[in-house]
């Protein structure tokens, strides 16, 4: 059960929840109003079919933004989608959006991209909103103090029909991060360090609020990376309170409110923080003085190491039977030996992209590493992909000349989409291939059947591409 707060003192999560609860059933199930509904091609077709079979109309079309991202090709898009299942899903989204007159960014739209990149950059995600999508990494939008979470296909249909979702209130965990940021460390490193500390299910049933001077020092895009990864700690949502950086980011968005509406909105948004005296069910602290660049070694995001550490040795460490079995399985799948160094592990491919790390700041960081090194992608690397998170990100990067930096160094520069984050499009790993990836999941087969994924920051991914192995030599 959520913690009891001092009189009148509420957490940020409490405030967002209270503003959107329609009713609560005796068993604790609540009907929660939804402000923004994001849909993609993967979880929407069945939902639309269910509505049509039942003869139900959509409740509020203006709340919806539809973007195809999982299945879209990032190369040779003019030839269409070759995979028949992927093509059917994308065409079905287009069909249903035209039929129901829904806002839809198709593949030819210059704003198309990954939905969790597109919605914030357009100003469609605003503080105080509830945001849902049939995708677990909807938690990304919590960086803007929005209560954002993924939903299933049946929930997508329910939201389209009623503008509400059924759920139980989460418990509250506060993660306080303090100290100055070490050189070479980024939000992705912090996310992996937190997940390593509390475990991949450590925040199950909780909403994570990230706070402290270390979080306040982050840009909004870096906060999105952190909230995106909250789901990998088992949380339903990630949250960051509104501050000046939030308002500065929103002021530049094309669909943000303007004039007097901006003043009214900003006044409300500034209340979106946890009150003094608000109690959390759990407190977690992390000192940035201890943070180092991180990379995963196994098949779960909590299987992470710094580059000076060695892969766990199940025979040399005292581990509970269940933990030992997980380590043994991960070592076998990843083709690693217990006790071997993680630094210098040879790679086949590098992927810079995904809803975690494909924004303009991510691309700038990676390009800076490449430019300062004066090196090209190592001959050992079979493919090094850079995939912008949206058409607007791609255009901005090309205006700044980032594409030329990548191309001249031997990287491939692609069109926006989820790409190699998951094996639902043409960008994927072959069995046994090892990839340094800026995405969010390293599960077995996530990037392709038999593929081996190592999660890391864009900076470390770029350095590793130049080294041909996991290495921070150019950070």
> Mean pLDDT across all residues, rounded?
96
**Can you tell me the residue ranges where pLDDT is under 50 for at least 5 consecutive residues?**
none
Per the CATH scheme, the topology name of the largest domain is: Aconitase, domain 3
Please give the domain count. 3
Molecular shape: globular
CATH uppermost class of the largest domain: Alpha Beta
CATH architecture of the largest domain, by name, is 2-Layer Sandwich
Record field, number of beta strands: 19
Distance between the termini: 44 Å
- Number of H/I helices: 15
Strand numbers in spatial order across the main sheet: 5-4-3-6-7
Structural class computed from helices and strand pairing = alpha/beta
What amount of the residues lies in strands? 15-25%
State the share of residues found in helices, binned by percent. Answer: 25-40%
CATH H-level superfamily title of the largest domain: Aconitase, domain 3
What Rg, in angstroms, do the CA atoms define?
A: 22 Å
Largest sheet properties: 5 strands, parallel
Describe this structure in words.
The protein is α/β, with parallel strands linked by helices and 475 residues long. The chain folds into three domains: 25-167, Aconitase, domain 3; 171-290, Aconitase, Domain 2 (3-Layer(aba) Sandwich); 294-467, Aconitase, domain 3. It is 32% helix and 16% strand. It has helices at residues 12-20, 45-54, 84-100, 115-122, 153-162, 187-198, 213-216, 220-228, 244-251, 259-269, 321-334, 360-373, 391-399, 402-408, 458-467, and strands at residues 21-24, 30-33, 36-39, 64-67, 104-105, 130-133, 147-150, 164-167, 171-178, 206-211, 237-240, 282-287, 294-296, 304-306, 349-352, 383-386, 412-413, 434-437, 452-455. The strands form five sheets. It has a five-stranded parallel beta sheet, covered by helices on one side. It has a five-stranded parallel beta sheet with strand order 17-16-15-18-19, with helices on one face. α2 crosses α5, α6 (187-198) runs parallel beside α8 and α12 (360-373) packs across α14. The longest helix is centred in the N-terminal third of the chain and has 17 residues, at 84-100. The termini are far apart.
């Amino acid at each position: 059960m959520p913690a009891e707060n001092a009189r009148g003192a509420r957490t940020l999560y409490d405030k967002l929840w209270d503003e959107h609860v329609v009713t609560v059933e005796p068993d604790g199930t609540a009907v929660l109003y939804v402000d923004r509904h994001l849909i993609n091609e993967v979880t929407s077709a069945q939902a639309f079919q269910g509505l049509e079979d039942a003869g139900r109309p959509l409740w509020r079309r203006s709340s919806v933004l539809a973007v195809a991202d999982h299945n879209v090709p990032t190369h040779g898009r003019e030839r269409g989608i070759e995979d028949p299942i992927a093509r059917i899903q994308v065409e079905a989204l287009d069909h249903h959006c035209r039929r129901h007159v829904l806002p839809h960014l198709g593949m030819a739209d210059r704003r198309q991209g990954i939905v969790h990149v597109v919605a914030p950059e357009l100003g469609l995600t605003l503080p105080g909103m509830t945001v849902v999508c049939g995708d677990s990494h909807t938690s990304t939008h919590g960086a803007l103090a929005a209560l954002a979470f993924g939903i299933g296909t049946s929930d997508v249909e329910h939201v389209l029909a009623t503008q509400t979702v059924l759920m139980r209130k989460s418990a509250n965990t506060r993660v306080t991060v303090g100290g100055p940021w070490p050189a070479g460390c980024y939000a992705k490193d912090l996310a992996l360090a937190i997940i390593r500390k509390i475990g991949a299910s450590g925040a199950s049933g909780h909403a994570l609020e990230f706070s402290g001077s270390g979080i306040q020092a982050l840009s909004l895009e870096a906060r999105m990376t952190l909230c995106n990864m909250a789901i990998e700690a088992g949380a339903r949502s990630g949250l960051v309170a509104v501050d000046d950086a939030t308002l500065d980011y929103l002021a530049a968005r094309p669909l943000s409110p303007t004039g007097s509406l901006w003043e009214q909105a900003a006044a409300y948004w500034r209340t979106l923080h946890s009150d003094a005296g608000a109690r959390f069910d759990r407190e977690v602290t992390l000192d940035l003085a201890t943070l180092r660049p991180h990379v995963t070694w196994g098949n779960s995001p909590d299987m992470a190491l710094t580059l000076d550490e060695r892969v766990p040795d199940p025979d040399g460490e005292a581990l509970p039977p269940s933990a030992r079995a997980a380590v043994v399985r991960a070592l076998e799948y990843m083709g690693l030996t217990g006790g071997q160094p993680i630094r210098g592990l040879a790679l086949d491919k590098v992927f810079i992209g995904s809803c975690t790390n494909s924004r303009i700041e991510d691309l700038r960081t990676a390009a800076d590493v490449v430019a300062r090194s004066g090196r090209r992608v190592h001959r050992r690397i079979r493919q090094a992909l850079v995939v912008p998170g949206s058409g607007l990100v791609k255009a901005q990067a090309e205006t700044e000349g980032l594409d030329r930096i990548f191309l001249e160094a031997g990287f491939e520069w692609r069109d926006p989409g989820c790409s190699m984050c998951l094996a639902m499009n043409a960008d994927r790993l072959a069995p046994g291939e090892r990839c340094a990836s800026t995405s969010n999941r390293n599960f077995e087969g996530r990037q392709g059947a038999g593929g081996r994924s190592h999660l890391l920051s864009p900076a470390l991914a770029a350095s590793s591409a130049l080294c041909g192995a996991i290495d921070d030599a150019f950070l």
